[in-house]
Design brief:
Blueprint: H1 8-30, E1 35-37, H2 45-60, E2 64-66, E3 76-79, E4 97-100, E5 104-107, E6 115-118, H3 123-126, E7 132-133, H4 140-159
Parallel strand pairs: 1-2, 3-4, 4-7
Antiparallel strand pairs: 5-6
Length: 165
């Protein structure tokens, strides 16, 4: 059996069309232009390309895109950089939603393992600024696993034309 290729470009095009429509409605009816703030850490060429693609796509969809020097203006900040406690509280707009995707281990002699997990955001001070924030551990990870389980079960249900009634 040959695997079915999941076409990320086709899925993205479908999602982006909806985003383009929603962004247009937000602008024309409500005077709101959605925006994306990106932070590039280091000089990794792959990361530079990925950030540039996000910025280009956001502009193509009618959104604005800004670099790290104005991150404090972001209403939603997603940190996924792989650097323990890198994002500081004074970088965060008061009341912003902070989604910390990073999972990093740092030494901790009080733990049996000798380490503890932290995110890319310096959580303790950041939670005093943010309006909502995901902790690490206990935030994005459990939600990701739960959605994986939901999608796996939904896929199995579709394969047998499942009817719960």
């Amino acid at each position: 059996m040959t695997a079915r290729i999941i076409d990320g470009k086709a899925v993205a095009a479908s999602v982006q069309e909806g985003v383009r429509t929603d962004a247009d409605i937000l602008k024309t009816r409500h005077g709101v232009t959605p925006g994306l703030a990106t932070i590039l850490v280091g000089e990794d060429p792959a990361s530079r390309t990925y950030v540039a693609m996000k910025q280009k796509t956001s502009q193509e969809l009618g959104m604005f895109s800004v670099g790290s020097h104005v991150v404090r203006q972001a209403d939603i900040l997603v940190a996924a950089i792989g650097k323990a406690q890198f994002v500081k509280a004074d970088w965060i707009k008061p009341g912003a939603t902070v989604i910390d995707v990073g999972t990093n281990s740092i030494p901790d002699v009080t733990k049996k393992s000798g380490y503890r997990l932290v995110g890319d955001v310096d959580f303790e001070p950041a939670k005093e600024v943010a309006g909502a924030i995901t902790p690490v551990p206990g935030g994005v990870g459990p939600m990701t696993i739960a959605m994986l389980m939901r999608n796996t079960c939904d896929s199995a249900k579709r394969s047998v034309r499942f009817d719960a009634s």
